[in-house]
């Protein structure tokens, strides 16, 4: 049975959050030499209120529930879908510990407000696992489950639980589809998300997928400090932002052994009207990506393909096919206004940075590559650190080779064993 209770008055909630932050900072001090999260300059994407909300989460490490609404608790045997369908602005659903062998949907009726997000999170101190073993897709064209399917919902937060074993063509842990906006996905542990035949072109899987497949835009999204590992994404990516999507922030995530590309912004694939069929406005900041290798080709860890106005800042890429690439695969379309700055790129076989599309395709222009540091890169391309294929208006400055391992910085964000969820 689930229970509900009224929240404390706002002052008590704010004071409690302050004490929680102080306690966690004392329990998990930043290692010597590590960056503070805000050491690099970065610009969040989204409307003013969302930027303020996202900055609070990034700089405190806390994803706070609303000070309004009801608080509910539920466990594996409860009607979780029914509870979610009834949530109102400011409500919080805390999930009790256990294994949930089910997929959940957040439709357009699940709507918070600017000052009252709906939060679905693991209850404090509880281990909550969503296991996709044996589950099917949500439509006839998909044989793998989307464990959390967000379609048209708004002002929603997911935080603090594990999703595993989503298997099948087009399987995913978290799927955002048209009309979804003002969403925070934080401190999730996503692993073993896989497609059955990774080398087959139509076999894809994603840990987190934003698929803007209509005129209705996905916007104002923060993906913060999630851990993604041991996935087999086939011809897709671990975190994919595709088609009609704008203002997405991918910050402080850790991705390891995900297959193919770890983080991708891609457009112009015919999924939505051509005027909006591409992502625009993105920040990819402070992520750590290791051991990502494509099973059918050479793929860069972070990829911009047919997208505009995206910043890639302060990321660490190690032991991957390539570092960061700005390309454009479809003729008649472009990738433009891309910033690749202050990244640490080591042990990347193809190159640290790639700009342009070899063999034709669309056009890449207005790319700035600055302040990046690299070591042990480019042995597949004759030792190149930065590869360029016919792009225009490319500015490259202040990039440098690291001579000694001790000069390599630690990742921008710490990974807490018990993150500050509430």
Q: Which key phrases capture this entry?
A:
single chain, mainly beta, 11-stranded parallel beta sheet, 3 helices
Largest beta-sheet details: 13 strands, mixed
In whole angstroms, the N-to-C terminal distance is 23 Å
Radius of gyration: 21 Å
What is the helix content? under 10%
Helical segment count? 3
Low-pLDDT runs: 1-38
Strand portion? 35-45%
Class per helix and strand makeup: mainly beta
Strand order of the largest sheet: 1-2-3-6-9-12-15-18-21-24-27-30-33
**Oligomeric organization of the protein chains:** single chain
Report the count of strand segments: 34
Mean pLDDT: 87
Mass-distribution shape: globular
What does it look like?
Residues 1-38 have low confidence and may be disordered. The protein starts with a strand and ends in a 21-residue tail after the last strand. The strands form 3 sheets. A 13-stranded mixed β-sheet has the order 1-2-3-6-9-12-15-18-21-24-27-30-33, sandwiched between helices. The protein has an 11-stranded parallel β-sheet with strand order 4-7-10-13-16-19-22-25-28-31-34, with no helix packed on it. The longest helix is centred in the N-terminal third of the chain and has 18 residues, at 10-27. By secondary structure, it is mainly beta. Helix content is 9%, strand content 41%. It is globular and about 60 Å long. The chain contains 3 helices and 34 strands.
